[in-house]
Specification:
Strand content: 25-35%
CATH class of the domain at 21-85: Mainly Beta
Region (Disordered): 1-32, 86-112
Oligomer: single chain
Biased composition (Polar residues): 1-29
Order of helices and strands: EEEEHEEE
Structural class: mainly beta
Strand order of the largest sheet: 1-4-5
Keywords: Hydrolase, Protease, Secreted
GO cellular component, one term: extracellular region
GO biological process, one term: proteolysis
Length: 112
Amino acid sequence: MSLFEENQTIAYATLPEQDSQPSPGSIVSTGGWREVKNGIYDTPSVLNKIDVPVIKHEACEALYAEDGGYKVTDEMFCAGLSGEAAEDTCQGDSGAPVYDGDGDSGRDRLVG
C-alpha cells in the first residue's frame, strides 16, 4: 500500500531562524489524518490540511487562562479560528507540524 501517488512530488521543509516565530495575522498551515463526522472519529485516506491565522500572544494567553489556566510561554504561539466557522485539527493530530511559506526558498518552512 502506498501513501503517495507515484508522480507526486515530495519536498523537504526548511527550518526557521533561531528564536523566530510567525507574526500575528500571518497564515500558517497544519494538518492530520483524523476527521470527526457527527461525533465519530474517522481516519480518511487523504491527509487533511488547514490554513489558520496566527493570533496575538496576549489573546492566546487570555484564551488559555479561561480554559484551565494553562501557561503560554514566550516560546509558544497560537493559531486558529474561533466562532461558528471555527476549524482546527482534531484529537489525534497533536504534534502535527505547523508550517508557512518561506519566501526566500519557495519551500515550506517548519515553524511549530
